[in-house]
Specification:
It contains one helix and 13 strands. It is mainly beta and about 180 residues long.
Length: about 180
C-alpha cells in the first residue's frame, strides 16, 4: 500500500509538477510621449487554460499592489489608467503589454503577475526576477538612409529608409522630400 502511494505521488509530480516561468525583456528604450510594446510570455505547470480563466497583472517591482495594468481599471494607478493594454492572449501564454503616451517617469521596473482564476494561492505567481526597465529617450532616433554608392542615369535606383520604433500599433510617419539646390 505504501509503495503504491509513493508511486502514485511520483507519477503525479511528473505529470502535474513543473515551474512557473516568464520571459520578459529586461531593458527597453522608450520614447517619451510615444508608446512601447513589452514582449512577454509565460508558462505554468497546469494544463492549458482558456484566456477567461487567467488573470494578468502588471505591477511595480517595489510593490505588487501598485498596478499599472489590471482588467479592473479602478485598481490601476491613476497615472497609468487608460494607458495600458494587454496585447497578448493569455490562453496562448502571451502577456505582451502596450503602454501609450509614455511619461518621462514611466521607467519601472514593471513585473508581470499571473493568476489562475478561482484557483488556490499556489496558482498565482509574480515574476519579480523578470521585470522590465524602460530607458527614457527624449528625442526619436534619426532615420537611417541606405543607398548604392553610385547611380546611373535612366536606371532604377533604390533608397531605403528605416527607423527604430517601439510600438507597432503607432508606427512613425515618414515623409520623403528632396532638397532643392540651385
Amino acid at each position: 500500500m505504501v509503495i503504491s502511494c509513493l508511486l502514485l505521488a511520483a507519477i503525479s509530480s511528473l505529470v502535474f509538477g513543473g515551474e512557473w516561468t516568464a520571459s520578459v525583456v529586461k531593458d527597453l528604450d522608450a520614447l517619451v510621449s510615444s508608446c512601447i510594446v513589452i514582449p512577454c510570455s509565460f508558462t505554468h505547470p497546469n494544463e492549458k487554460q482558456p484566456t477567461s480563466k487567467i488573470r494578468a497583472i502588471w505591477h511595480l517591482k517595489s510593490d505588487m499592489n501598485q498596478r499599472i495594468y489590471f482588467e479592473d481599471q479602478t485598481q490601476v494607478l491613476d497615472s497609468f489608467k487608460g494607458r495600458t493594454k494587454l496585447l497578448g492572449q493569455l490562453g496562448q501564454n502571451n502577456c505582451t503589454l502596450e503602454i501609450t503616451d509614455i511619461k518621462d517617469f514611466d521607467n519601472g521596473p514593471f513585473c508581470f503577475r499571473v493568476e489562475l482564476v478561482d484557483a488556490p494561492p499556489k496558482e498565482k505567481f509574480s515574476f519579480i526576477e523578470d521585470c522590465v526597465r524602460l530607458n527614457m529617450l527624449s528625442d526619436a532616433p534619426k532615420p537611417e538612409l541606405s543607398h548604392p554608392k553610385s547611380a546611373t542615369q535612366d536606371r532604377p535606383y533604390t533608397l531605403t529608409c528605416s527607423v527604430t520604433h517601439t510600438c507597432p500599433s503607432h508606427a512613425p510617419k515618414l515623409k520623403w522630400s528632396r532638397e532643392h539646390r540651385r
